[in-house]
Each structure stands twice: as structure tokens, then as C-alpha cells.
Design brief:
By secondary structure, the chain is an alpha/beta fold. The chain has one domain (3-163, 191-215): Rossmann fold (3-Layer(aba) Sandwich), CATH 3.40.50.720. The protein contains seven helices and five strands; from the N terminus they run E-H-H-E-H-E-H-E-H-H-H-E. The protein has helices at 16-29, 41-55, 78-106, 127-147, 165-172, 181-187, 191-203; strands at residues 8-10, 60-63, 109-114, 152-159, 212-215. A five-stranded parallel β-sheet has the order 1-2-3-4-5, with helices on both faces. Helix 2 (41-55) runs parallel beside helix 3 and helix 3 (78-106) packs parallel to helix 4 (127-147). The longest helix has 29 residues, at 78-106. Residues 167-180 have low confidence and may be disordered.
Length: 222
């Protein structure tokens, strides 16, 4: 698509990878901000409609809202586990559902789900988060097959190590890892790299698309 014609709705939080990616992509694509809880269907409906009204249309959804609940299996708390799925999976589904209604009606659109390399492999103490990312990848593939006949491109971006508060919290709770903080700042991915990937996916001619892009930090140190 011609990126200058992009009318984009990006979901995101206020910290970590979400905030950085949202800010950098918003700079490139000129996105306004709307406050909503992605786990509440009525708020999602209002958000999508407001975005469409503000931009006089909608042709891109970037599902970027999410967070990581880290816990050993034997310590998992049921309510926190459920909340993890509500935000990362139900939230993404509701946003895609409402956006897809508009995309199907206009016979065109783009959905980009922000996953993680945790969509591809498991990690110790991260099973709740990893499970949501595996689920997101499965939904991405299913939505892609469902929506392609309507000229809707469904894609996923999987970042690896990104400098966020998510990693900051891990380091703060591990004194042995604190020595790597400066090295991480020099070698881990930034929001700019993920924003560049998203823009590149969208800029491909509409006759084709890259289904999935995994972005690794070259040498993240830790």
C-alpha cells in the first residue's frame, strides 16, 4: 500500500515494548490517541468507530496491546493467568473483530499482530505469556485464511530482545544480571527497528504480503 494513504489504529499500553512501538510508528503514520480497555467489547467498538471517524476511514489495525505475566508453574495464580489471556488474546480478538467488519465491508484492509519470539519457543517461568503468544500466532494464521478472499492481509511481527520496562524489571529483580544493563542498551532492539518492520510490511504492493516477520537482535548480550 501507499503508506501515505494508511489510516491506522494501533493498540498499546503505557510501558515497555508497547509504548515504544506505538510512539515510533505513530510518528511515521500520523496516528491520534484514543483511550480504551481492549478487554471490554463496548469500548473496543467505540474505539474503532472513533478512529474511523477521525481519519475518515480505516485500513490498518496493529494489535500491539499486551504484557507479560512471568511465573513458575507451581506459583501461577489463576486470576493473573486469566487476566493475561484477557488482555493478550481476548483484547486482540475484539480489536480484530471490529476492524475486520469495516475491512470486509470495504473489501480491503491490513491486520498486523505484534507477537514475540515467544510465539516460536517456550521459556522457563514464562508459560502464561508464551501461551498467549502461541495462541496469537494461531489466530493470525486462521484470520489470514479467513480474510484473504476479502483482500485483507493478516501479518505478524515477532520481536526478540527489546529494551523495555519488561526487561528492566527482570534485571532489577536479578542482581547478577545488573552488570549487563549497559550492554543491553547498546545491543538490544529498539522501538525504531520494530516500527521500520511494520512500515515495510505495509508498503509492499497490495497484490502480495509477507505473512510473518521475526526480528532478532544481532547480539543482545543477555
Amino acid at each position: 500500500m501507499n503508506i501515505r494513504n494508511a489510516k491506522v489504529l494501533i493498540t498499546g499500553g503505557n510501558s515497555g515494548r508497547n509504548e515504544t512501538t506505538l510512539q515510533e510508528t505513530a510518528k511515521a503514520l500520523h496516528v491520534d490517541y484514543i483511550k480504551a480497555d481492549v478487554t471490554q467489547e463496548n469500548q473496543v467498538q467505540d474505539m474503532v468507530q472513533e478512529a474511523k471517524n477521525k481519519m475518515n476511514g480505516l485500513n490498518v489495525l496493529i494489535n500491539n496491546a499486551g504484557y507479560g505475566y512471568i511465573s513458575k508453574l507451581i506459583d501461577i495464580e489463576a486470576d493473573k493467568f486469566i487476566d493475561q489471556f484477557k488482555t493478550n488474546i481476548l483484547g486482540a480478538t475484539l480489536c480484530a473483530k471490529e476492524s475486520a467488519k469495516h475491512f470486509v465491508a470495504q473489501e480491503y484492509g491490513n491486520i498486523i499482530n505484534i507477537g514475540s519470539t515467544s510465539s516460536l519457543k517456550g521459556s522457563p517461568t514464562a508459560s502464561p505469556y508464551v501461551a498467549t503468544k502461541f495462541a496469537l500466532r494461531g489466530m493470525t494464521e486462521s484470520w489470514r485464511n479467513e480474510l484473504r478472499p476479502h483482500n485483507i492481509r493478516v501479518m505478524q511481527v515477532n520481536p526478540s530482545e527489546v529494551m523495555t520496562s519488561f526487561s528492566d524489571n527482570r534485571i532489577a529483580n536479578n542482581s547478577k544480571a545488573k552488570q549487563y544493563t549497559e550492554a543491553e542498551q547498546q545491543t538490544k532492539l529498539r522501538g525504531e527497528e520494530i516500527a521500520h518492520t511494520i512500515s515495510s510490511l505495509l508498503e509492499m504492493d497490495d497484490r502480495g504480503f509477507i505473512t510473518e516477520a521475526t526480528v532478532f537482535a544481532t547480539n543482545p548480550k543477555v
